[in-house]
């Protein structure tokens, strides 16, 4: 895999790469990676973590510091303002407390890129690959409007086209989650959240996750954070931000698009079913509890 970040907004990928690589130098023994492929619900989980008062940061658009704090990067303020999880910091309304640990940081990188850093742990966030890749496709073509992704045309073609990692999107998902599953036991602490559980049983799911990581958060605080982070509330926040910072690109497309588990049931075709059964994906998906066999089309 290449070391390029899995992020491209309005043609500024090189700046994202440079910022992220600089941020990696600030990671230490009290940092916990929140690892996911794009489209897996990182915006939702990140917002919940901030709402319960934990230190969550996005090193793709923020500058990290060795004391545990992070600060806005003006070049990405328009994007950051759309997301509740970063809007307050970029608006200067809720700065992080100095030395607040552990620090949770977003990553779309495989563990090999972080192995030189003495991280405390990992929080793996995974979603049914059919839904996560479809959501990532929509983000890159509708919101980011990346010319290379748009040139793929259909979702079917995009799945087979090499992305920034140099492999197809299908292989990208499989490699990412296989490597994190294999590497998880090496960390001091670790936990796993499926997007589906986060949506269906958020309080119980997060309680278990926090226990795994040795973090104490009362159930009532989790409940309040989940409510504030609902799809309706986060979409309303983005709409408000859009009104203040109109998207200059035609379409004014949202980041918060759907947020629905098992959305794949609405668009899956036999051809796409066959694609998702290729290579290592079925076996890796099964490690996380997902059955990609065609008969699952009728599952609820």
From TrEMBL:
Q: Where is this region: Disordered?
A: 233-255
Q: Where is the Sulfotransferase domain?
A: 30-277
Q: Where is this chain compositionally biased, Basic and acidic residues type?
A: 235-248
Keywords attached to this Swiss-Prot or TrEMBL record, sorted alphabetically, are: Transferase
Which InterPro entries does the record associate with it?
P-loop_NTPase, Sulfotransferase_dom
Family that this chain belongs to? Belongs to the sulfotransferase 1 family.
Q: What is this protein called?
A: Sulfotransferase domain-containing protein
């Amino acid at each position: 895999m290449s070391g390029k970040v899995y992020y491209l907004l309005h043609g500024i990928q090189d700046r994202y790469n440079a910022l992220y690589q600089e941020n990696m130098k600030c990671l230490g023994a009290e940092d916990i990676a929140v690892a996911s492929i794009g489209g897996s619900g990182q915006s939702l989980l990140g917002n919940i973590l901030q709402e319960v008062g934990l230190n969550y940061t996005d090193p793709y658009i923020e500058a990290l510091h060795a004391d545990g704090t992070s600060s806005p990067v003006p070049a990405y303020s328009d994007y950051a303002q759309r997301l509740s999880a970063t809007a307050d910091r970029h608006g200067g309304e809720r700065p992080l407390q100095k030395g607040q640990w552990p620090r949770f940081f977003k990553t779309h990188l495989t563990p090999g890129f972080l192995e030189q850093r003495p991280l405390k742990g990992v929080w793996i966030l995974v979603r049914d690959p059919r839904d996560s890749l479809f959501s990532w496709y929509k983000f890159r073509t509708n919101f980011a409007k990346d010319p290379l992704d748009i040139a793929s045309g259909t979702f079917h073609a995009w799945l087979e086209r090499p992305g920034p990692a140099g492999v197809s999107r299908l292989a990208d998902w499989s490699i990412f989650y296989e490597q994190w599953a294999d590497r998880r036991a090496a960390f001091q602490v670790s936990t796993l959240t499926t997007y589906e559980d986060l949506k269906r049983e958020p309080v119980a799911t997060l309680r278990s996750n926090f226990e795994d990581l040795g973090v104490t958060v009362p159930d009532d605080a989790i409940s309040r954070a989940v409510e504030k982070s609902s799809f309706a509330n986060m979409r309303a926040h983005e709409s408000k931000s859009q009104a203040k910072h109109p998207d200059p690109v035609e379409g004014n497309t949202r980041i918060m698009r759907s947020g629905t588990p098992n959305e794949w049931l609405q668009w899956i075709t036999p051809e796409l079913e066959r694609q998702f059964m290729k290579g290592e994906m079925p076996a890796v998906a099964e490690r996380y509890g997902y059955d990609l066999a065609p008969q699952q089309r009728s599952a609820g």
